[in-house]
Amino acid sequence: MPGKPAKKQKRQQFKKDVEGEEADGRLPQKKFYRQRAHANPFSDHSLEYPRSPSGMDWASHYPAYAVKSNEGEGRDESRGEGETAKPRSTSKQVEIADIGCGFGGLLFALAPKFPSTLIIGMEIRTSVTEYVQEKVRALRVQHREDGGYQNAACLRANTMKFLPNFFEKGQLGKIFLCFPDPHFKQRKHKARIVSYTLNSEYAYVLRPGGVVYTITDVEDLHNWMVEHFEKHPSFERVSKDEQEKDDCVEIMRNETEEGKKVTRNNGIKYVALFRRIEDPPWP
Amino acid sequence: MQYPYQCIESCNRSATEDSRWILFGGRGSKLVAQSSTGVASVWPPEDEDLAVSMSGWHEDEPTEPPGKKIKLSHSNDQISTFSSLTLSHDGQHLIAVTSEDKSIRVFQIDSDCNLRQLSQRCMARRPCAISLTEDDSTIFCADKFGDVYALPLIQPSEDEQNGTPADEPSEQDTPKHYVPAASVLTVHSGRNRKVLEEQMKQASKGQKKSKEQLKFKHELLLGHVSMLTDILHATVEGRSYIITSDRDEHIRISRGLPQAHIIEGFCFGHEEFISRLCLTTSGLLVSGGGDPYLCVWAWLDGRLLEKVFIRDAVLAFLKNHPNLASSLPENDDSFRIAVCGIWSVPRRKKEQDEILVACEGIPAVFSVRLDGTTTIDAVPLIGNALDVAFVYASEDSCTTVVSVDNIHKPGSTTEIREDEGTSRLQYFAHLDGRWEDDTKFEDKLEWFSRQAPNDARNAHGDEKAVRDTLYIVENLRKRPGAEDQD
Ligand SMILES: C[S@@+](CC[C@H](N)C(=O)[O-])C[C@H]1O[C@@H](n2cnc3c(N)ncnc32)[C@H](O)[C@@H]1O
Q1: What is the ipTM of this complex?
Q2: Where do the domains of chain B lie, and which CATH numbers do they carry?
Q3: What pTM did the predictor assign?
Q4: A189-233 per-position pLDDT tens digit
Q5: Residue B448 contacts by C-beta under 8 Å, 6 or more apart in sequence?
Q6: Cα–Cα distance, B433 to A204 (Å, whole number)
Q7: Domains of chain A, earliest start first
Q8: Pocket residues for ligand 1 (CB within 6 Å)?
Q9: Who among A3, A182, A196 is closest to B220 (CB)?
């Protein structure tokens, strides 16, 4: 669904304004980036995705970590994005993914918490992604002195189809699935972001010991996620004790947009963490 | 209207058995079989005395072709179209997929070439491809919604007896006591709220029956969020693997049973849908689909060894045939192919990997030798290539049987031919690296290729139904923006 023309105009105007002035740290306004709540994960969106993890241009998302591929080449290192045809790499790999990051509340809370870890928000809705990207840009400008938020970025992706295009086997240490769309309808269960078969993909991109964080206010969805991760031989549930000791859990409860909404409505938040266990030997 | 074989499969038995080989063909909703001894059969049987008339026929008395005796009187209520045929490794069973009823059918092949249906299992989603484990115990079924299920080849007897769902994966479970999935406290979009209200209503009305509960043993192994297009089972150094391909350019390597939940890796390199996978004699993986090239893989470590630009060979073939060249676009670059079949040519020596490739609507098969030089030769056909099977007339003489489209004009998937009586099969022998017509089969399979009874349904000449059965691969191509939102 295209955004209302007025919204679109406002977004474009904002983009033009901040582009004009190098050091503009103004934050984007959420109301101009709202979008219909659901996107169909099965349809052929005109998505851009790398053909394989090695074809991913991470440097354009984390310019502060870009590696100069060749001294002699004299590549333009100014902030001009998407100019280079060849993928450029970063000195570090992304290790935290916030899947379905929405407006990025969690992403922006995690960035200062893990200042030396690259964090990526992944979102299927175009203008929501655009909002987060604008906010990343603004925060980086605001934090030019201390180099904050250089480790946070957001890209548009349908993670249910293309997660392995972005990450190598065992690349990630943490995956967040915060307040996923519940897809109540019976026949839409395959559209849920957690299922026995998709969990194999999360297991593939997570390294042994890595953790999937889930939170929802829908009790049935919580039970569903627990059931499907517990059934999957590559995961074990993290004990309540350990869960409450993990700082990320508090951040996830309080810093996600949905988490805040649920708090305002005095709703209940269900949390569950699952650890990737080592693959068993071949039979 | 005549009807071609949309799929064929061969069974080669050792010389000690009474029939050396049997050829099977799916023609509309008919399954036709003929053996080297001249015995033939059609499933489902049209007529009581068909079996009698057929078994009395031998190749040395072709003056009275049995086709004439077959009455096409009664209409059949079995209308599902055969979309693929797979032979078990031991040659005892034929596994057929029929599309409209989404079924996997297992047939016992009796010694007299008769087919006996042992089971019909109707899947929740349309099966796109199947594969069998080496020990023939398990069928892997890859479906349109991206899931792979394992089913025992021979249905356990308890399945039919009590008819209860056996260990249903809970992806498709309906909660026993209906609980609405969200509480009224749940804060979500208006749309979700509406669904919730709807669910509350449903709950008060009593639970809806789920259509998706399958009443036979089946186990969910793995899944892509995409349409699956092919599946292979492979064993390397005692380890078994499942290779799956999808419409979103992925080739996934998973461990075999009982660890099919573990993904070992991916083969990245395609830019368009993948439609076919094939393992060569030496164990390389070849994949093809909507791209102008095939990919050759050292698949265990996801390494792309080579791209074979098959499109160029197809283009050159069409340009060499003036009657076909008219269908070409003005600009070579906009010429697209859709690979609809890749077959490994049986070879004695492992180093001599050779494959045959067919593209939708192209009257040729392309032989590709992967011996380091990658040579491509076109083998011209009298009609568009549909399927390929390899038949052994003797232990060391292998004939390649190609099913061709005898309805549409060569090079076209829409225009109907004017000529009639074109053979539905062509035969080739491999002589000194060249593909030559193998005439000895023309007589032997005369009945199969020209006379076997038609699908009664097609007597009405539903051109579109025939076309939709034969040409489905190009439809896998994505049309970006078609369903896009924002
Ligand atoms: C209810 S919102 C939660 C947003 C955020 N995580 C939070 O807690 O505030 C779920 C988000 O997941 C996104 N989403 C749904 N399916 C997705 C997919 N297949 N790939 C990426 N994002 C997806 C939706 O667009 C939506 O923004």
Answers
A1: 0.88
A2: 7-51+76-203+214-479 (2.130.10.10)
A3: 0.88
A4: 778 999 999 999 999 999 999 999 999 999 999 999 999 999 999
A5: B23, B25, B32, B34, B40, B424, B425
A6: 44
A7: 51-64+87-276 (3.40.50.150)
A8: A 39, 41, 100-102, 105, 122-125, 128, 157-160, 178-181, 193, 256-258
A9: A196
